[in-house]
Write a structure and sequence with these properties.
Elements: E1 4-6, E2 12-14, H1 15-19, H2 31-57, H3 67-70, H4 73-98, H5 102-132, H6 141-174, H7 178-209
Antiparallel strand pairs: 1-2
Helix pairs in contact: 2-6, 2-7, 4-5, 4-7, 5-6, 6-7
Family: Belongs to the cytochrome c oxidase subunit 3 family.
InterPro entries: Cyt_c/ubiquinol_Oxase_su3 (IPR024791), Cyt_c_oxidase-like_su3 (IPR000298), Cyt_c_oxidase_su3-like_sf (IPR035973), Cyt_c_oxidase_su3_a-hlx (IPR013833), Cyt_c_ubiqinol_oxidase_su3 (IPR014206), Ubiquinol_oxase_su3_dom (IPR033946)
Subunit structure: Heterooctamer of two A chains, two B chains, two C chains and two D chains.
């Protein structure tokens, strides 16, 4: 009688029929990546608002210094190089993960993290120098919008570095399993997204900012 179950009318019914009513958990394939794409689209809206605010306020100097007087393009170019190189090294990490080489993946992730920290270090130096010169975010609408846009991007890079370190710990503990490969892909999209945003910042804020 192990294969027989009673139905609603008290009659015997095959146990397989009873299983038809069981609800099974279902995780859609690539559902995490789709959800992360949606998050990135929402982040695009955030940066779009900040870019628009800078476009409106970027020439309101209130008698204070302009971008041409404040921006050090050589320093910003070096910082841009750090971030772009970090994107390349992350690409190497992804290639090594596809080859199932854990140690090489960790090595390239560590190099990526160092470039990210170098970028943040120069950005903090830039901000502290501006504030020391009396060009803080409260000085003018131009500087308020500048600090908001560039600072938000820097905050994202900080989150990316923390995420990177956390992922390295997970990789060291659990290896290149399916879950960690998915996390690597999500962080890859996030990191390259920050590169694209920074190219916009470098062009729209710094390069155009030094124009008369």
């Amino acid at each position: 009688m192990s294969d027989i179950a009673l139905n609603a009318h008290g009659a015997a019914a095959p146990a397989q029929e009873e299983n038809l009513f069981h609800v099974r958990d279902h995780h859609p394939e690539n559902g995490t990546l789709l959800g992360f794409w949606l998050y990135l689209m929402s982040d695009c809206l955030l940066f779009a608002v900040l870019f628009i605010a800078y476009a409106v306020l970027g020439r309101n100097f209130a008698g204070g210094p302009s971008g041409a007087e404040l921006f050090d393009l050589k320093l910003i170019a070096i910082n841009t190089g750090f971030l772009l190189l970090s994107s390349i090294t992350y690409g190497f990490a992804m290639l090594e993960s596809q080859r199932k080489k854990l140690n090489s993946t960790l090595l390239w992730l560590a190099v990526t993290g160092l470039f990210g920290l170098a970028f943040l270090g120069l950005e903090i130096y830039e901000f502290s120098h501006l504030i020391h010169e009396g060009a803080g975010p409260q000085r003018s609408a131009f500087l308020t919008s500048f600090f908001a846009l560039v600072g938000t991007h820097g905050l994202h890079v900080t989150v990316g570095v923390v995420w990177l370190v956390t992922l390295m710990i997970q990789l060291k503990k659990h290896g290149l399993n399916e879950a960690n490969n998915r996390r690597l892909m999500c962080l890859s999209m996030f990191w390259h997204f920050l590169d694209v945003i920074w190219i916009g910042v470098f062009t729209f804020v710094y390069l155009m900012g030094v124009l008369p």
